[in-house]
Design goal:
single chain; 116 residues; alpha+beta; Nuclear Transport Factor 2, Chain: A; five-stranded mixed β-sheet
């Protein structure tokens, strides 16, 4: 069954809250709950890679450095788009991202656009 708007919003806000709290188990639990039948993650402009490895690498390389500030989240049907400011935890500044999510029956597709 495709998740409803409230379920999608709970995922979007919950995974950000877990990221900012450095709660790795909670962060990954949100993704597993939304994608028990498959997860696809793409970085725009980069070759495809395995989704769970992307999440693990993102966590390992960035969690201690980045705090997510939600600028906007829009949910339409089974899709969502988010504008996040990936603020540096120990310095001024950060990097903006646009994240596009598509929720299917037990599967999720994510595409990240990172400002350079």
């Amino acid at each position: 069954m495709t998740p409803d708007e409230n379920t999608i919003k709970n995922f979007l806000h919950g995974q950000v809250a877990c990221w900012n709290a450095c709660d790795k188990e909670g962060f990954f639990a949100h993704y597993r709950a939304m994608a028990p039948n498959g997860l696809r993650i793409d970085y725009a402009g980069q070759p495809p890679r395995e989704a769970w490895q992307i999440l693990e690498g993102m966590w390992t390389q960035q969690n201690t450095k980045i705090r997510i500030e939600v600028k906007a989240s829009i949910v339409n049907g089974s899709e969502a788009a988010c504008h996040h400011r990936n603020a540096f935890r120990d310095a001024e500044g950060g990097v903006d991202t646009i994240e596009v999510y598509r929720f299917l029956e037990g599967r999720m597709e994510v595409r990240y656009f990172i400002a350079r």
